[in-house]
Design brief:
The protein is built from seven helices and eleven strands. With 357 residues, the chain is α+β, with helices and mostly antiparallel strands. The protein has one domain: Deoxyribonuclease I, Chain A, CATH 3.60.10.10. Strand 7, helix 2 and strand 8 form a beta-alpha-beta unit. The protein binds 2-acetamido-2-deoxy-beta-D-glucopyranose (3 copies). One 2-acetamido-2-deoxy-beta-D-glucopyranose binds next to loops.
């Protein structure tokens, strides 16, 4: 008899939001983070892990920028304060920020946590676009979370494709077997990818189609869909098609499109799983949700979230994380360091929580 044993069965919540240089102030993030009693995880449970990417966070120095954390990271920590979460890591490159929080119980199953950043544009010498990422060994599997902000404007498609390849080429990690983004067993790539609609429909006509929820027709013109088909970029990744209105460009404080730009699905979440690369092990990331959050009117973009069921299953036998890690990452790993840094992350987290009381 074939038996499948789950080594990991996690609900991972991803969120991307271009906050247009606003600070969080009195924003209530509870519905955004599924803390309002309704989640998209199995059995209405809270996510096991949150990975949140922001674009255009304010880079002007904050007077109270304690612990070098951005106000948005502190806001998330504060929002998750009543639950059993620990900040795992964060990385910022100018206005692009990625941060990861996980439930306490998963921390012993995280190793070799690394962050990376790539600035794009002319040799990375100028411009404020690029990507930040967090990679780790999670229950023995290699996963990379990449948050990017690509070149803006309808006509800059070529630059967006170049940005993508520059990020893929320049992103390097130290983990054995996982030097590059696409070496990872699981890749989640999200952000303000800035893809627009091809063709010359007017902003008014796009809005009319959106009002009639003709998303499928509009998505046939979506630059990201078109270039993934052609294999120009993002073709290793999959995306569930959005069943929500374009998330750009709104008049701040409203749900009205600002028709100075043609509405577009700039904010996207893609993923890739290499399901069967280890004998006797099956990896999967079934997508449970993909939605925009219209209640949030802070910036000219709507936040977009997705949840995934991150599963690692062994056929006919069980593995400990260490055995699996050995299989995936090789034996030359050094488990001591992440332990210590996670302990510090926890201490800082507790300290931050206290200073906010
Ligand atoms: C919580 O927020 C989600 C997402 O915004 C929404 O779909 C859901 O209806 C809300 N639930 C409650 C109980 O307000
Ligand atoms: C720390 O590392 C030790 C030895 O590798 C391991 O036994 C222990 O479970 C780890 N603890 C955490 C919290 O990661
Ligand atoms: C699992 O065990 C069954 C029965 O012993 C065998 O037929 C099957 O090939 C095994 N599968 C794997 C992946 O080892």
């Amino acid at each position: 008899m074939v038996t499948a044993t789950a080594i990991a069965d996690l609900c991972i919540f991803l969120l991307t939001w271009n906050v247009g240089t606003h600070v969080p102030r009195n924003q209530d993030l509870s519905s955004l983070l599924s803390l309002n009693g309704t989640t998209t995880c199995p059995d209405n449970q809270l996510p096991d892990i949150y990975v949140i990417g922001f674009q255009e966070v304010s880079t002007t120095p904050q007077v109270l920028k304690i612990f070098n954390d951005d106000p948005w990271v502190l806001k998330i920590a504060d929002s998750l304060n009543d639950y059993q979460f620990v900040k795992v890591d964060s990385k910022q490159l100018q206005g692009i920020l990625i941060t990861m929080f996980a439930q306490h119980k998963h921390i012993p199953h995280m190793k070799e946590i690394e962050t990376e950043a790539t600035r794009t544009g002319l040799g990375g010498l100028w411009g404020n676009k690029g990507a930040v990422s967090i990679r780790l060994s999670l229950y023995g599997t290699g996963v990379a979370f990449v948050c990017s902000h690509l070149a803006a404007h309808d006509e800059k498609l070529k630059e967006r494709i170049e940005d993508y390849h520059q990020i893929v080429d320049n992103h390097k990690y130290n983990a054995q077997g996982y030097r590059r983004i696409f070496d990872h067993d699981f890749v989640f790539w999200f952000g303000d990818l800035n893809f627009r609609l091809s063709g010359d429909m007017s902003a008014w006509d796009v809005r009319t189609d959106v009002e009639n929820q003709r998303y499928a027709d509009l998505l046939k013109l979506d630059q990201l869909n078109l270039l993934r088909e052609k294999g120009n970029a993002f073709s290793l990744l999959e995306e569930q098609q959005p069943n929500f209105a374009p998330t750009f460009k709104f008049v701040e404080g409203t749900n009205d499109y600002n028709l100075k730009r043609r509405p577009a699905w700039c904010d996207r979440i893609l993923h890739r799983v290499q399901s069967n690369i280890y004998p006797g092990i099956t990896l999967s990331a079934n997508q449970l949700s993909y939605q925009s959050h219209m209640d949030y009117t802070l910036s000219d973009h709507k936040p977009v979230s997705a949840t995934f069921n991150y599963k690692v299953e062994a056929i006919n036998r069980t593995y400990t994380d260490e055995e699996l890690h050995e299989m995936t990452h090789g034996s030359a790993s050094s488990p001591a360091t992440p332990n210590v840094s996670l302990f510090f992350a926890f201490v800082v987290f507790v300290a931050v929580s206290y200073t906010q009381l």
